[in-house]
Each structure stands twice: as C-alpha cells, then as structure tokens.
Design brief:
Largest sheet: 5 strands, antiparallel
Protein name: Peptide deformylase
CATH superfamily: Peptide deformylase
Number of helices: 3
Radius of gyration: 16 Å
Enzyme class: hydrolase
Strand order of the largest sheet: 1-2-3-6-7
CATH topology: Peptide Deformylase
Pfam families: Pep_deformylase
Strand content: 25-35%
Distance between the termini: 34 Å
Function: Removes the formyl group from the N-terminal Met of newly synthesized proteins. Requires at least a dipeptide for an efficient rate of reaction. N-terminal L-methionine is a prerequisite for activity but the enzyme has broad specificity at other positions.
Cofactor: Fe(2+)
Helix content: 10-25%
C-alpha cells in the first residue's frame, strides 16, 4: 500500500489544469493504485492526481462504500441543488458551505480504456464535482461568495503560512 503525500494550497500543481491521459501503461496503473490507496485513509472522500503531484486527469473516490477511479473524467449531467459543508485535503482546516448540484454523472475511461460512468447524489455528487474541478486547476474555495468566502479567507489568513510542497521546501505564505 502506497499512501502518497498531499500537495497543499500554494503549490502550483494545484492551479495547473491536468493533461488528458494518453498513455495507458504500468506507470498509469501505479498512479491509479496510489490514488486508490491514498483515498482510503480514514476521513477522505476523493483525491485528484494533482493533489499528489501528478498533472494527469485522474481521480479516485471513496464515498458511502463506493471506491473507484476515473481517467479523463468529464461531468456530463447535473441536476438540482445541494448546499452543504465542503472541505479539501489540499486546504486543511478550512471548510465552508458550498452550493453544488444534487446529482452528478461523470464519464471517462478505466485503465483498459473502457468507458466508465459514475453517478450519484448528495456527497458522491459533491465529490465528483469537487475532483473534476481539481483537474481543471480549481479549488472549491474559488467559487465561494459573500460571507462564505470572507469567512474562509479569514481562516486562511489566520494561518499565516502553509507547508511547502511534499517534495521538500520550507513554509510558504498563503497568498
């Protein structure tokens, strides 16, 4: 089992859109294994490849007893509204209410390039949207508005610094 270290807010890999997976080889299989191992740490629901330092369009999920992954995911359908607490492994210690679709369907492929579809409501829908956003270089805090955004930003600023990238480096300023 390989649990990879997480990249945190301030690491440029989190703000860089991920590349589509085009090479389906042993390295990709190892990445998927690491994504699945890393998302199974208690308290985790989803994990995008860029959160572990790899700029490929891949994520894993572990929500309500459903564990899996999607390569080259794209949201193809959403419906309704779901307003609930959201947090991010790459923005530790900050959570905020965020409006998302109540239902989401993601399509992509698996390691054998076979079509994959994952759909869900509630927390699974939130996870699918959250991880797909990561792959575009977006964090959930980016879409917060009004008092929700102000509260999240106050919390971030109160922390003064965040750890540097998992590959080394010292602390960095938050903004």
């Amino acid at each position: 089992m390989t649990v990879r270290p997480l990249r945190l807010l301030g690491d440029p890999v989190l703000r860089t859109p991920c590349d589509l997976v085009t090479t389906f080889d042993a390295a990709l299989e190892a990445l998927v294994t690491d994504l699945l191992d890393t998302v199974q740490v208690p308290g985790r629901a989803g994990l995008a490849a860029n959160q572990i330092g790899t700029s490929l369009a891949a994520f894993s999920y572990n929500v309500e007893g459903r564990l899996g992954y999607v390569l080259n995911p794209r949201i193809v359908e959403t419906d309704g509204e779901y307003d609930g607490e959201e947090a991010c492994l790459s923005v530790p210690g900050v959570q905020a209410r965020r409006l998302r679709a109540a239902y989401a369907r993601v399509e992509g492929v698996d390691l054998r390039q076979r079509p994959v579809a994952v759909e869900g409501t509630g927390e699974l829908a939130r996870c699918l949207q959250h991880e797909t956003d990561h792959l575009r270089g977006e964090l959930y805090i980016d879409a917060l508005t009004g008092e929700r955004r102000r509260a999240a930003m106050r919390l971030l600023r109160s922390r003064a610094t965040i750890p540097g990238p998992a590959s080394g480096g010292g602390d960095r300023p938050l903004v």
